[in-house]
Amino acid sequence: MKKYFLIFALSFCWINLVKASDPAFEKAMTKQIQAMETIQTLEESQKVSNSFLRISEAQPEEWLPLYYAGLLQIESAFRFDVNQDQALEQALEYIEKAKNIAPGNSELTALEGYAVMGKISVDPANRGQSMTPEAMQLFGKAIALDKENPRAVLLMAQMELGMAQFFGSGPEKACGMARMGSDLLRKEKEKITESYILPTWGQRMASQFEKVCQQN
Question: Do you know which InterPro entries this protein is assigned to (predicted)?
Answer without folding.
Answer: TPR-like_helical_dom_sf
